[in-house]
TrEMBL record:
UniProt entry keywords in alphabetical sequence: Allosteric enzyme, Carbohydrate metabolism, Glycosyltransferase, Pyridoxal phosphate, Transferase
GO MF annotations, alphabetized: glycogen phosphorylase activity; pyridoxal phosphate binding
NCBIfam families, per the entry: P_ylase
Family label: Belongs to the glycogen phosphorylase family.
Family annotation (Gene3D superfamilies): Glycogen Phosphorylase B
UniProt name for this protein: Alpha-1,4 glucan phosphorylase
Record EC number: 2.4.1.1
GO biological process: glycogen catabolic process
Role played: Allosteric enzyme that catalyzes the rate-limiting step in glycogen catabolism, the phosphorolytic cleavage of glycogen to produce glucose-1-phosphate, and plays a central role in maintaining cellular and organismal glucose homeostasis.
Gene: GPH1
Catalytic activity: [(1->4)-alpha-D-glucosyl](n) + phosphate = [(1->4)-alpha-D-glucosyl](n-1) + alpha-D-glucose 1-phosphate
Cofactor names: pyridoxal 5'-phosphate
PANTHER family assigned: GLYCOGEN PHOSPHORYLASE, GLYCOGEN PHOSPHORYLASE, LIVER FORM
Pfam family of the protein (one): Phosphorylase
Length: 859
């Protein structure tokens, strides 16, 4: 077995690994342990000379460079390794300290961790940004140039992964004992190019070799099985036990990513799993000339962790994604069990030392896998094991739309995971028996609450399975939590009661999304609040309200916004070859391209504005607010309608930006390949950001929080976290519009059976598209049909009139610069609730039952 403390001298041996255990070896280990303990008592002082020497040492020995070969990339890598050296030392101390106390830990299971770049974040957390900047300057390199050399980690594609990254950051910063677990994808979702106005996907080769921010752990491997068959055997006690045998077996190997806490000695960890491929080459087949067979197992294993979320529009893609989820779940649960067994505590203590959070339904296969490991491998009886399972797991639901709930066909599960399907059958059977005992003869309730959905074929409803197995289920915004209690989990409320279902409103890490992304504003806030403690306690931002009306402060605030807009304008010029004025209003919508997020409505509004400007006299036109409308985001590779939305945006941009008669009154920009680093440039520059999902469809959203924290104003629907943001900052500081969540179904019913007449403004916009202003009308026909003959599921035609009125209100407010800057300051000042620190405190106290455990500083 392996100690959780990386490179610990007290590490135990992993199962399956043979190591010499001679007397000389034991003496050597004792000596090494003593020396390492003495070494760990010393923390290398930080000064420019030592840091510069560390960078030069890594340039010479790690990067193997001679002076004339040194460039900004090599310098970045050497600096990154020197930072990692410091992280590893604190990381070991943290893990060993938590291990020595046998504290309860949370394990946050997420298929995505959208980490962004690590170097800048680590330097800020360690308080070394200035020292490293000075040292790099002394070596003839600029800090910003070196930071740009780092690629964004391609371990996520949207809000789910960014939320997970914020939560692990908060766990470390708040000294909570906990790890993240995920998969080490070799390729991200995809790199997005725009070619002839269309999205084109190319591989996202984010994973550098080597990657200084991960530590390969070849000694930490677990076998993961697929296919095969189940046999019944008698154990030594004569008791029958199930054994899963045969099939395909791969080794899941660990890669560790240290995550430093801000202003604390604690460094936590994200453990990522990848297939270990070295043993899979068949030398015999190779020597016989059967090269395909020689490499077959290796290629199969490589595919399992090759790509984030493979396209599942076909059966092979579906099976691959299911295997990904099980590889992740199985390796994680085996690792947690190994760590628990090292404590020597009885199995009844497992939930007292282990809390597992399922971040959405992707890790739900961990439920039957833990049950299997406990009964098949550890010999516990069913009831004892199930009691442990249900006291260990908790589940965060991110889904509002029933059609978006994850389901797996029963035949596929029976084929790939035969033992787990039989366990799921039993879990469901025993659960339904309990339900039937309380509600006899209610066959409809049993059908609605079953984890197995009847049909051809039957489907396993993963959210239902997670709900059955978890002691707590939470939504991620107040409105979202109320909606799921009334819809997808209504029948579970009927059985369990409402106490099991709670709300935990999402939050964002202020370290990344203000302190790092907006350094100018961070410095101003610190000077006003007169402490840097706000970086760990956002409630301190409330003091900013005292400076509303202070002319000098307001001018500084506006100057910083302008500087950020100039930075974004330069980025747009570089990447998109479009020149925009930083003095125009920057109107931003950045997120995954999806019909429910309604980028389509946004671009229809842009066309309306364009038509109005074209119809105005020159004199009237000059009174209009200049505006730059900025879009960014990826459409899923198989999502045809979402890709058409991108094509419409880029086609409108081509026409509008080339129209010299507008004199820069309107520009449209689509920034390709949206990622964390791009967001860090866009968000601080926003004047207004659009969060305009159909009411009741966005679980929460976190980009809205990032924009408002940076003094951006929201134009949004009454949906997701917009509702709570409005409560905190005040209705006068947000522009709301559109129908409400409880009105949506009535409107949809009306649109489906008695469509309302299309509003004249929308009709005019659609006519502009149909007459070829933005290219061949036939291209956009399927998109327009979603409004005219597709039932308008996302109610664009219903909300469009109020959307236009809201845009007018934004223009009126923006003209009054003094009231606008006051609104911007109040937005930032009242965002204390939306820190991920607050979220993690609530999870820790009310769901996980863990306490802060700060690692003592070195004397």
């Amino acid at each position: 077995m392996e100690s959780t403390a990386p490179f610990s001298p007290t590490s135990m041996t992993m199962p399956g690994l043979v190591r010499h255990n001679s007397l000389e070896g034991q003496v050597g280990k004792t000596k090494i342990a003593s020396l390492m303990e003495e070494f760990d008592k010393k923390e290398e002082p930080v000064d420019n000379e030592r840091v510069q020497n560390a960078i030069i040492r890594h340039l010479s020995t790690t990067m193997v460079k001679i002076p004339k070969q040194v460039d900004s990339f090599a310098t970045y890598m050497a600096a990154a390794y020197s930072v990692r050296d410091r992280l590893i030392q604190r990381w070991n101390e943290t893990q060993e300290y938590h291990e020595s106390l046998q504290v309860k830990r949370v394990y946050y299971m997420s298929m995505e961790f959208l980490l962004g770049r690590s170097m800048d974040n680590a330097l800020l957390a360690l308080g070394l940004k200035k020292v490293y900047s000075d040292c790099l300057n002394g070596l003839g390199f600029n800090m910003e140039d070196c930071l740009e050399e780092e690629l964004n980690a391609g371990l996520g594609n949207g809000g789910l992964g960014r939320l997970a990254a914020c939560y692990v950051d908060s766990l470390a910063t708040l000294d909570y004992p906990g790890w993240g677990y995920g998969l080490r994808y070799e390729y991200g979702m995809f790199k997005q190019l725009i070619v002839d106005g269309y999205q084109k996907e190319v591989p996202d080769e984010w994973l550098g070799d080597p990657n200084p921010w991960e530590l390969p752990r070849p000694d930490i491997c677990y076998q993961v099985r697929f296919y095969g068959h189940v046999n019944t055997r008698r154990n030594d006690d004569g008791k029958e036990q199930m054994h899963w045998e045969g099939g395909q077996v791969v080794d899941a190997m660990a890669y560790d990513v240290p995550v430093p806490g801000y202003g604390t000695n604690n460094v936590t960890n994200i453990r990522l799993w990848s297939c270990k491929k070295e043993k899979l080459f068949d030398l015999g087949s190779f020597n016989e000339g059967d090269y395909d067979h020689a490499f077959a197992a290796k290629m199969h294993a490589e595919s399992l962790t090759a790509v984030l979320y493979p396209n599942d529009n076909h059966m092979v893609g579906k099976e691959l994604r299911l295997k990904q989820e099980f590889l992740f779940a199985s390796a994680t649960l085996q690792d947690i069990i190994v760590r628990f067994k090292q404590t020597g505590r009885p199995w009844s203590d497992f939930p007292n030392l282990v809390a597992i959070q399922l971040n959405d339904t992707h890790p739900t296969l961990g439920v039957p896998e833990l049950q299997r490991l406990l009964i098949d491998e550890e010999g516990l009886d069913w009831d004892t094991a199930w009691d442990i399972v249900t006291r260990t797991f908790s589940f965060t639901n991110h889904t509002v739309l029933p059609e978006a709930m994850e389901r797996w066909p029963v035949p596929m599960l029976e084929k790939i995971l035969p033992r787990h399907m039989s366990i799921i059958y039993d879990i469901n059977l025993f659960f339904l028996q309990k339900v039937e005992k309380r509600f006899p003869d209610d066959r409809e309730l049993l059908r609605h609450i079953s984890a197995i959905e009847e049909g051809y074929p039957q489907q396993v409803r993963m959210a239902f399975l997670a709900c059955i197995a978890s002691h707590t289920v939470n939504g991620v915004a107040e409105i979202h939590s109320e909606i799921i209690k009334k819809t997808i989990f209504k029948d579970f409320i009927h059985y369990f009661g409402s106490e099991k279902f709670v709300n935990k409103t999402n939050g964002i890490a202020p370290r990344r999304w203000l302190h790092q992304a907006n350094p100018l504003l961070s410095e101003l806030i610190t000077s006003v609040v007169q402490t840097k403690d706000w970086v760990k306690d956002l409630r301190l931002l409330g003091k900013l309200e005292e400076f509303v009306g202070d002319a000098e402060f307001e001018q500084q605030w506006m100057d910083i916004k302008l500087a950020n807009k100039k930075r974004l304008a330069a980025y747009i010029d570089k990447v998109c070859n479009i020149k925009v004025s930083p003095h125009a209003m920057f109107d931003v919508q950045v997120k995954r391209i999806h019909e429910y997020k309604r980028q389509f409505m946004n671009i229809l509004g842009v066309i309306h504005r364009y038509n109005q400007l074209k119809a105005m006299s020159e004199t009237r036109r000059q009174k209009e607010v200049p505006k730059v409308v900025i879009f960014s985001g990826k459409a899923a590779s198989g999502y045809y309608v979402a890709k058409l939305i991108i094509k419409l945006i880029t086609s409108v941009a081509a026409v509008v930006n080339a129209d010299e008669s507008l004199d820069n009154l309107l520009k449209v920009v689509f920034i390709p390949d949206y990622n964390v680093s791009v967001a860090e440039v866009i968000i601080p520059a926003s004047d207004i950001s659009q969060h305009i999902s159909t009411a009741g469809t966005e679980a929460s959203g976190t980009s809205n929080m990032k924009f408002v924290l940076n003094g951006g104003v929201i134009l949004g629907t009454v949906d997701g976290a917009n509702v709570e943001i409005c409560e905190e900052i005040g209705e006068e500081n947000i522009f709301n519009f559109g129908c409400l969540a409880d009105e949506v179904e009535d409107f949809r019913h009306t649109q489906r059976y008695r469509p309302m007449a299309i509003h004249p403004a929308l009709k005019s916009v659609l006519k502009t598209i149909e007459n070829g202003t933005f290219g061949k009308p036939s291209i956009f026909g399927p998109l327009i049909e979603t409004l005219t003959s597709g039932g308008d599921v996302y109610l664009i035609s219903i909300d469009f009139p109020s959307y236009l009125e809201a845009l007018k209100a934004v223009d009126r407010a923006y003209r009054d610069k003094k009231s606008w800057v006051a609104r911007s300051i109040r937005c930032t000042a009242n965002m204390g609730k939306f820190s991920s620190d607050r979220s993690i405190h609530e999870y820790a106290r009310e769901i996980w039952g863990i306490k802060p455990c700060p690692t003592p500083p070195k004397v």
